[in-house]
Amino acid sequence: MNEILSKAHVALGANLPHAEFSLEMTLSQAIATLSGPDVVIRSVSRFFSTPCFPSGAGPDYVNAAIELATSLSPTDLLDRLHAVEHEYGRARLQRWGMRTLDLDVLSYDDQVLPDLIVYRHWADLPPEQQIEVAPEQMILPHPRLQDRAFVLVPLADIAPKWRHPVSGRTVSDMLHALPADDIASVTPL
Asked: Rounded mean pLDDT of 111-138?
């Protein structure tokens, strides 16, 4: 019997080396580690150099995005991503801090989780509060993806026509709505 697979997009980033790996090697190895019978990597963006976010919080990042097909539920996929982060030395010490590996679920099919009201709360949260609080549950699509060139530029590499299930905008639309300086700061390696 064929298993029904869901499509997900995942953002990858790193700004601290892990062991003997360069940032690019860490991302490549993490993608390989993530791949398996229940996670099939369908597409991988180019790798991009991006300024640290928030500005001044540490060294620049290497960012990328992947599209995958999975039989895992959204929460099981997130658990798998956290396990891979841990394997590559990720310590969750501070929100938006430096990290050896960051893996974020951006989308999972066209699901809005846990519901539209909670999604909108987190998507509309003022920037000063975003730094201080984090949701206790998975929010999908990622509530900040439309605001971040370091996410949208790699995602546009692999899924420019993916349509946000709440706003209805494509990745290309969201990217072109950002300030030109933000987009220009994300450069291919």
From this structure: 87
Q: Would you put residue 89 in left (φ > 0), alpha (ψ -120 to 50) or beta?
A: left
Query: Cβ distance 48 to 188 under 8 Å?
Result: yes
- Pick from 41, 63, 35, 53: nearest CA to 131: 53
List the chain domain ranges.
Answer: 6-188
Q: What is the pLDDT of residues 139-162, one digit of tens each?
A: 999 999 999 999 999 999 999 999
Nearest to residue 188, comparing CAs of 23, 65, 48?
48
**Angle at alpha carbon of residue 146, lines to 136 and 174, rounded to 5°:** 160
Residue 183 near residue 172 (C-beta atoms within 8 A): no
Given the candidates 3.30.300.20, 3.40.50.300, 3.40.50.2000, 3.30.70.560, the CATH classification of the domain at 6-188 is 3.30.70.560
Yes or no: say if 32 and 12 are a contact pair by the CB < 8 Å rule: no
